[in-house]
Design a protein that fits this description.
alpha+beta; 2,3-Dihydroxybiphenyl 1,2-Dioxygenase, domain 1; 2 helices
């Protein structure tokens, strides 16, 4: 398992981009009003507009600014999900295909959401 990304929920995307790009010096990979990513050498750091909620969740709820959502990558999400169920870990999104990635979301003991996706298999390269 590896940390794949962290999502920081922000109240003002433009102000947050200025801070992470210009103050911290992170190289900008992609920017939009609701979602921005930075091209770090390790895991992706993404900014998400806090006022938006995810309509794909059963019970969408607004996410407060200043919170972070870590994203983990596992080889087999179904096996990981079984383990989370065995430990009675609250699941707020069952394993689902979303944007071409199989992903689930769980809550830690303090209610912090953690996204877990299945590692993508890399197919043969085409010349």
């Amino acid at each position: 398992m590896r940390l794949n990304y962290a999502i920081v929920h922000v109240s003002d995307m433009e102000r947050a981009v200025l801070f992470y790009r210009d103050v911290l010096g992170l190289p900008l990979k992609f920017e939009s009003p609701g979602w921005t990513e930075f091209a770090t050498e390790g895991a992706t750091l993404a900014l998400h507009a806090a006022r938006e909620s995810n309509p794909e969740l059963e019970n969408p709820r607004p996410l407060p600014a200043g919170r972070c959502r870590p994203g983990l990558s596992v080889p087999d999400l179904d096996e990981f999900h079984k383990r989370m169920v065995e430990y009675n870990t609250p699941c707020i999104q069952e394993p689902t295909e979303t944007f071409g990635v199989k992903i689930a979301q769980y809550l830690d003991p303090d209610g912090l959401a953690i996204s877990v996706s299945e590692e993508r298999l890399r197919g043969p390269s085409h010349a």
